[in-house]
Design goal:
Helix 5 packs parallel to helix 7 and helix 10 packs antiparallel against helix 11. 71% of the residues lie in helices and 0% in strands. The longest helix has 17 residues. By secondary structure, the chain is mainly α. The radius of gyration is 27 Å and the shape is globular.
């Protein structure tokens, strides 16, 4: 019996339409093939409308080759035929085929353009998405929303705002996309401004504003938004659980979790992570074991909690248990990624390279499937070790389509090895490949210049953030540049940059400058005075002041 599918001797077109949509939504490929055969043996076999829907159905069933076969059998194709084919390729990651079909289209509409642009965005090829977006004759609100969200994901807030300001019409999705862009980049004030201006605020709007405060570590601000929400969904409750956990207030996080009107697996997992990261491993494990449904994120949260507390053996044992109990492709792949990252963070590169489903043996090489996260995790794990840049590069060269995260990892690997020239070359290669750098990329390049003493390249990169990429430098970019200037003994410029920062300088910025001021008593005293005003409890401050004075004698 095929549950949900009604067996009929001679369905009419409307019944076939219902069955096709049911197949697509359930992604039941076996039933999809049976249904197509049933249509081919019916009086409606030549109906273009049904053939178009079959193309769409096979795309939803993750069978783009079948979608193409049906498409090729349609003699009088129309715009819908082409759109469904492009969509079938695009939603299944066949970007080259999607673009080839798009280029062959004699007529296009907003759906055609949006399908390919969205596919570029989802594959991390933002530059290609932008090129196509700029060519689109009359971008509608949907594709503009896609681009705002895409630029928000990369931290390009200026481009987000440019698209937003030029939109002739906006929906609540538009406002939410801009709000989420500011929120995810830590720009709480700008997020609040957008929130206050958003008409018809919905639960997504409120949740995004709440998340902005959570990401900024502002528990009081998050609590006020949470208390003012006209309706709270499980996402809002979960955000507050995480907020208290991140602030180290485990009792409040636990109490709020138990007050939730309902729990989903995300909420349960968040509480497991909060307890685990707070060192309450036994309680975290008990909650994990009581989860009604343990998905990949839950397993990874528990594995990561063990790893973070240095209990590598238990993390490995749990991974082995996962391998025995679960066979889901996505579940296993993401959990393999987590265990690779764990070994990398623990500095166990050889183990990360060798492990299997239980004991540490051939881990990466034995993976049943690898996704971009797998490659990036192995690359990052290798690159974190000094002297492993060449090995990291070997891994990078095997990645079929490097993501921005992969580029960031390989740039950092060379930088940590003092090879700042190679890091700069990779950054340029990244741009030529059409990848769009994000805030982490610039931090990696600047840090690489700091490790190798590449002052000129570091300065060029720092100025290009705004001049060439239209971005605003974040605090980490300033700290890297201050450190670089200090290492080059350009102390006046470093001090001027600290004073000119559009942020309240973190103690790390002044410590870097103070460390470089050894032998310059006047400057060291001035920097130390500012440092002690804002961070009197920092023991490193006193040690550095002592070093600066000793260096002058």
């Amino acid at each position: 019996m095929h549950h949900g599918f009604k067996q009929l001797d001679a369905p009419d077109i409307s019944e076939f339409v219902r069955l096709i949509k049911l197949c697509g939504n359930s992604r039941n490929l076996v039933r999809a093939v049976q249904l197509e055969a049933q249509i081919l043996h019916s009086p409606h076999s030549q109906e273009r409308y049904l053939s178009n829907l079959l193309v769409e159905m096979y795309g939803k069933c993750r069978a783009p080759a079948e979608a193409r076969r049906v498409f090729d059998s349609i003699h009088n194709r129309n715009l819908y035929s082409w759109n469904f084919l492009v969509g079938a390729y695009a939603q299944n990651g066949h970007l080259l085929e999607a673009r080839a079909a798009f280029d062959l289209m004699g007529e296009r509409n907003a759906i055609s353009w949006t399908a390919v642009i969205k596919a570029y965005v989802e594959s991390g090829q933002l530059e290609n998405a932008k090129i196509l977006f700029d060519q689109m004759p009359d971008p509608d609100v949907v594709v503009r929303n896609v681009m705002i969200a895409a630029y928000g994901d990369t931290g390009d807030l200026e481009e987000c705002r440019r698209i937003f300001d030029r939109m002739p019409e906006r929906t609540v999705v538009t406002w939410n996309a801009l709000l989420q862009a500011y929120a995810s980049s830590g720009h709480v004030d700008e997020a609040r401004c957008v929130f206050d201006q958003t008409p018809d605020q919905d639960v997504v709007t409120w949740s995004a504003m709440l998340q902005a405060y959570v990401e900024a570590g502002d528990v009081d601000g998050a609590r006020k938004v949470f208390g003012s929400m006209p309706q709270r969904n499980v996402v809002a409750w979960t955000s507050m659980v995480r907020a208290y956990g991140a602030a180290g207030d485990i009792p409040e996080s636990r109490a709020l979790f138990h007050k939730m009107p309902e729990w989903d697996v995300v909420a349960w997992t968040a509480m497991v992570a909060v307890l685990g990261q707070g060192g309450h491993l036994e309680e975290a494990r008990a909650m994990f074991d009581s989860l009604p449904h343990q998905d990949a994120i839950a397993w990874n949260a528990m594995i990561g909690s063990y790893a973070q507390c240095g209990r590598i053996a238990e993390a490995r044992d749990l991974f082995q248990e996962l391998g025995i109990l679960r066979c889901s492709h996505n579940l296993v792949t993401s959990s393999w990624n987590a265990i690779i990252a764990m070994h990398g963070q623990a500095g166990q590169i050889e183990e990360a390279k060798r492990a299997d489903l239980g004991a540490v043996k051939r881990l990466f090489d034995s993976m049943p499937a690898r996704d971009p996260i797998s490659w990036t995790a192995m690359l990052a794990a290798t690159g974190q070790q000094r002297g492993q840049a060449a090995r990291a590069h070997e891994i990078f060269n095997q990645i079929p389509c490097p993501t921005v995260a992969a580029w960031n990892a390989i740039i950092s690997a060379h930088g940590q090895s003092g090879e700042w020239g190679a890091a700069i070359a990779l950054f340029r290669e990244m741009l030529l490949a059409g990848a769009s750098p994000n805030e982490i990329t610039f931090t990696a390049v600047l840090a690489s210049c700091g490790h190798g003493g590449g002052l000129a390249d570091g300065r060029h990169c720092f100025h290009s953030i705004a001049a060439d990429f239209g971005r605003r430098a974040i605090a980490d970019h300033y700290y890297c540049m201050i450190d670089l200037l200090g290492r080059a003994k350009q102390l006046r410029h470093a001090e001027e940059l600290v004073a000119a920062m559009p942020y309240v300088p973190d103690p790390a910025a002044r410590i870097a400058l103070l460390s470089a001021s050894c032998g310059d008593v006047e400057r060291g005293a001035r920097v130390a005075d500012h440092l002690l005003q804002f961070s009197p409890e920092n023991a490193a401050s006193y040690n550095l002041i002592s070093n600066a004075l000793q260096g002058s004698s």
